[in-house]
Structure formats: C-alpha cells, structure tokens
Amino acid sequence: MTTRNPVRSTWLNVLLTALAPVIWGSTYIVTTQVLPPDRPFTAALIRVLPSGLLLLMYARRWPARGEWARLLVLSALNIGAFQALLFVAAYRLPGGLAAVVGAIQPLLVMGLAWGVEQRRPLASTVWAAVAGVVGMGVLLLSPGTVFEPVGILAALAGAASMATGTYLTRRWRLNMPVLALTGWQLLLGGAMLVPVAWLADPPLPSLTIWQTAGYAYLSMAGALLAYALWFRGIARLAPVAVSSLGLLSPLTAVVLGWVLPGEAIKGLAFVGLAVVFASILAVQWTAARA
User: Fold this and answer.
1) Which end of the chain has less neighbouring CB within 10 Å, N or C?
2) Within 13 Å of residue 245, how many CA atoms lie on the same side as its CB?
C-alpha cells in the first residue's frame, strides 16, 4: 500500500490548474489577429455557450433546488460578466495594460477573505502578490501605453468579477461534480450574454476558415477544457493560490506576442518576467503553508 505525498499532490494540482490561464493567455492574440473586429460580446458568447451545452450533455446532472441562486451568481461572476468585460478590455486596451490591471486579482481575493471571514493573509503572501503587480508593470508598461478609460474600467471590473467568483466558488462548495459545475456556469453565463451580444454587437460577417477555427479554439480549449481545470483547482487549492496562477495568462500573452508578431524583448522586460514568475511561485508556497 502506497502513501500519498501531500506536497507532490499539491504541486500536481497547481500544474494542472496553471494550464487554464496558459490557455487563456492566447485569447488576446486570437481576438486581435484572427476574429472579426468589434464584436466582444459575440466572441464571449460563442466561447462559452457551446462548450457549456457539451459538458452538460456529458455530465447530465441537475443542481439541487437550493443551489440555483448561488449557481446563478457564480455564473454571472465567473462567466457572464467576466467574459464580456474581458473581451471589451481585449478590444480596447493593449494586452499589457489589461494584464497589469488584471494582476490585482490575488490581492482582491485576500481582501475578500479578510473582510468576510476575518482571515488575515500572511504578510509574505501579500508582498508576493504586490510584487506580481509591480513585475507585470515593469514587464509590460511603456511610456507610449494608451490608457483608454472604458478599457481600464472593463479590466478593473473584470478582475473584481473573477476574484469574487473564485472566492465564492470555494466558499460555497456546491454539491456538484466539477464537469457539471463547469457546464452549468458556462451555459447560464452564456445565456446572460445572448441579449447583450444581440443588442450591442453588429451581426457576424461570413466567417473565413481561420475565423471559424479561432472561435472553435476559444470555445473548446479556452472554455470547456480551461474552465474545467480552473474549477477543479478551486476545489483543491486556496483561492488566493488559484487567483495568483491567473498571472500566467498575461505572461503567456506576452510570450505569444513576442514569438508570433516578432516583437523584441527590451530593457527591463526580462526582470519583470522573472519577478512575476517568482511572485506566482511565492504565493503558491505561502498559500500551501497557510
């Protein structure tokens, strides 16, 4: 009989959960380089609704009667509002600026845990999260960065929505398997996006093969697979640890931006990259100790 190693199990959960933001990191480049322009809510809708239907066809699990209200709240925070705001920010802001704003998520999660549960975070965890924001700024911001007000507000609201959803998903712990929980949130969140996409976005043009493939990738990988891994991680890791892994999304976007469009790494970018990565590892370590 073998004894399970808790440290190895924790870091395996960290690695699996980290795959979700790595996949999400491709959202910016797919949105700007492949998808039709100026249709943020349509992109969010196509991303989440089909994958939610597929997961529920597989899981075949209905929520308990008393879980519907909380499930609707989680669907709005984690999917509906967050996806809409994410694509608004992606269309209006440079990926770097949106990433710096989104880097505050671990701090927001710690603030929620402190304010709601009186769980004061470790000082080392707080400083590690702050270092992640600073490192992201060093890595991505430049004197020519355009601070577009609507995009900034969308990025801030999206970070607050995702942080609150991550915290409440762990706090409420709905009695559902991960795939069913993921499927219902994608379906309900997608349903919330239908009227917004219908009223706010122009109709889709005839799609090219690449555009169709882009939407399919965002739905199957960016929603179905990534959110299943994300909610699995929330069930097994501390909320602040999961939220910190979200910084891997902009790091992935940066790497893709350097590799695919051929942008060069300049100045202190390497230092910022190292600081952000060290911040992620430090938050994982301190959260696991706590």
Assistant:
1) N
2) 28
Which residue do the tokens 């690695």 mark? Answer: 15
pLDDT of residue 55: 94
Lowest-confidence region among 24-28, 160-164, 245-249: 24-28
Predicted confidence at residue 144, as pLDDT, reads 60
The pLDDT tens digits of the residues spanning 43-52 come to 889 999 999 9
Whole-angstrom distance, CA of residue 246 vs CA of residue 34: 23
**pLDDT tens, position by position, 244-278:** 998 888 788 777 777 766 555 666 777 888 888 89
Q: State how far the Cα of 154 lies from the Cα of 88, in Å rounded to an integer.
A: 6
List, in order, residues 6 or more apart from 183 with CB less than 8 Å away: 51, 52, 53, 54, 55, 56, 58, 59
Residue type, 224: L
Whole-number Å distance between alpha carbons of 83 and 185: 12
CB contact at 8 A, 163 and 112: yes
CA 191 to chain centroid: 19
Quote the CA–CA distance of 151 and 27 in Å, as a whole number: 16
Which residue is associated with the tokens 């999917």?
79
